[in-house]
């Protein structure tokens, strides 16, 4: 990541942001600048507000306080500089749209024009985005009949095809096998290195992307920490954040967190007890 300078505008700038639903505050006082080419992992247990954070950046969720700038503008509207991989939802089996058409939706029509040249250029871009996620074999089939992982790879292609300045990814590795988790993480990493795309990557499992992560935003129970993985993913920082002893174990280049789930269960006693070593963020 290159250091901030005056002539490079940040990809994302969040000032004094807060989000509350009724009496429940998901986060408040959030200040964050994400630079072009930076890879920010957004971690935290279920319901801590990770997806809502991405939705606030997209203008799909209003803030309770503060402001957001993304790709040089306000969130919302048709900002073509933002690629978004939404949290996976099953696509209706009856959807007959083909993969190539789904990916093509990630391109804005007017830039290519109706002429033959425009259409050929558009087709080439779509084909190359599909190739990059390894989806060429099934890209002409109806999306509704593809497996969850195949659909997910097309969603990644759709988010990347428009040459975004900022890529917002909500658990993009879900339902991918290990080989494709790796291929997609490396593809996203290479895009931010070569094109300077900032990546905000929501995940429950940091290990598959740990080699790429510059900084972590960790959300828990209305609190958050921002910093390099080595600063945030420590026993002392996470224990402070969870409000109880949480053990962070670093083994073979991977990070494992023990005790976080039971910390949350104590706060919400109706949940099942799971006090095994686990990764919740
Ligand atoms: N529009 C809304 N109105 C009321 N509550 C909402 C709304 N949107 C989200 N919430 C609540 O805010 C909390 C945070 O939701 P969010 O989806 O951001 O969590 P998350 O960290 O992404 O969780 P997960 O890991 O389970 O995907 C949840 O408890 C959710 O029910």
TrEMBL record:
Keywords: ATP-binding, Nucleotide-binding, Transport
InterPro entries on file: AAA+_ATPase (IPR003593), ABC_transporter-like_ATP-bd (IPR003439), ABC_transporter-like_CS (IPR017871), Metal_Ion_Import_ABC (IPR050153), P-loop_NTPase (IPR027417)
GO MF annotations, alphabetized: ATP binding; ATP hydrolysis activity
Domain ABC transporter: 12-246
Gene3D superfamilies reported in the protein's UniProt record: P-loop containing nucleotide triphosphate hydrolases
SUPFAM superfamilies: P-loop containing nucleoside triphosphate hydrolases (SSF52540)
Transport found in the keyword field: yes
Entry's family note: Belongs to the ABC transporter superfamily.
Protein name: Metal ABC transporter ATP-binding protein
Species annotation: Amycolatopsis balhimycina DSM 5908
Highest classification ranks of the organism: Bacteria, Bacillati, Actinomycetota, Actinomycetes, Pseudonocardiales
């Amino acid at each position: 990541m290159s250091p901030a300078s005056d002539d490079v505008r940040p990809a994302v700038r969040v000032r004094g942001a807060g989000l509350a639903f009724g009496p429940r505050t998901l986060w408040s006082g959030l200040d964050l600048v994400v630079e072009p080419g930076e890879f920010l992992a957004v971690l935290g247990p279920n319901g801590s507000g990770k997806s809502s954070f991405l939705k606030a950046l997209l203008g799909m969720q209003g803030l309770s306080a503060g402001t957001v700038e993304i790709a040089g503008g306000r969130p919302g509207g048709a900002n073509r500089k933002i690629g978004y991989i939404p949290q996976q939802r099953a696509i209706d089996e009856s959807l007959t749209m083909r993969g190539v058409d789904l990916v093509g939706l990630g391109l804005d029509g007017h830039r290519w024009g109706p002429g033959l040249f425009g259409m050929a250029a558009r087709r080439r871009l779509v084909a190359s985005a599909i190739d990059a996620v390894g989806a060429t074999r099934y890209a002409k089939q109806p999306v509704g009949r593809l497996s969850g992982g195949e659909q997910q790879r097309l969603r990644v292609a759709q988010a990347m095809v428009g040459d975004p300045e900022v890529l917002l990814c909500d658990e993009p590795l879900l339902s991918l096998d290990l080989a494709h988790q790796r291929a997609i993480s490396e593809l996203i990493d290479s895009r931010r290195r070569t094109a300077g795309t900032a990546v905000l990557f929501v995940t429950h499992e940091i290990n598959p992307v740990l080699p790429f992560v510059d900084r972590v935003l960790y959300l828990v129970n209305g609190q958050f920490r921002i910093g390099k993985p080595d600063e945030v993913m420590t026993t002392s920082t996470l224990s402070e954040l969870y409000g109880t002893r949480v053990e962070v174990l670093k083994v073979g280049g991977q990070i494992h967190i023990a005790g976080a789930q039971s910390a949350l269960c104590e706060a919400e006693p109706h949940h099942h007890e799971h006090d095994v070593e686990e990764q919740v963020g």
